[in-house]
Fold this sequence. Notes:
Largest sheet: 7 strands, mixed
Structural class: alpha/beta
Strand content: 5-15%
Order of helices and strands: EHEHEHEEHEEHHEHHEEHHHHHHH
Strand order of the largest sheet: 3-2-1-4-8-6-9
Shape: elongated
Amino acid sequence: MNFKVSVIIPVYNAENFLEKSVMSAVNLKQVGEIILIEDCSPDHALDVALRLEKEFDKVKVYQHPDKGNYGAGASRNLGIKMASYPFISFLDADDYYLPNRFSTDEEIFMTIKNCDGVYNAVGTFFKTEKAKQTFFDGGWGYQEILTLNNPVEPEDLFSVLFHQDSNVKGEFHTNGITLKKTVFEKVGFFNTKLRLRQDIHLWRRLAGFCNLYSGEIGDPVAMRVIHDENRMTKRKDHLQYIDIWWQSLKDEFKIKGLDKNKYAIFEQAYFNHYAGDKNKFKAFKALLMNVINKPKLFAESYGNFDFNFWKVFGKNKWTIKFISFKNKLFT
């Protein structure tokens, strides 16, 4: 199979960034086309996109049928449907690729026949000192390089991404993943109800049903640009989608028949999340349902039940005494 990639770039409020983004991809030999999905941007990004389309044969510009604004997920979905090549990658319009973007991907896809996708490290470039300060003040410093700290076998990736494997830490970013176009027949497209976190949502589903391999996880193959208007640094924007994120994943995994061992991993992560909910009724309900579903948890010493119990009731002398008594009772 010839390794040619369709690069999909959603375009919104990207007038000042889009040209650099496109230029970082247009001369890469593995790139067959660059699909720009203009998402009713309020600035002059459409003019920039159309100029680039005239200048480069690889660049193609599309809009939604009604020329409306539908968000990055819907724009990427449209790009996937319009793609001409068997491999798909993504790039945010304010970010850029590095020259080594597809070197490892090509090698892996050409040698590992069951490979559905490859993920790589993505670095961070700060546009301003203010943006850098906001990034670190917001507690995002651990994401300065988005990658996994160790290679992971495809069958273990699901556990890693749901933080149920203590040996491997990290995440990967939209700019660093390359996929066979056929994977979307298995798992569906980006969830358009999510205006944020729809990419992470898809990676979890892919890890559940596909074979994703680690590529270049040491040195970045792309850079995301953090500027003053980045929504990813605004935690409140993310929180409004959290419930939809978890509930829709649960529905997807049930409907598509996720492997029972993987579903058990997801279910534990699901309960762990809701045990930390600020609404104590919801948190207690999650704790109780977790014990009903997995009664053996209660007997584990300093396992999920213990930590979730402290999430719900706080860690004080009474809760510590209760957990100590419980653990002595079962040892």
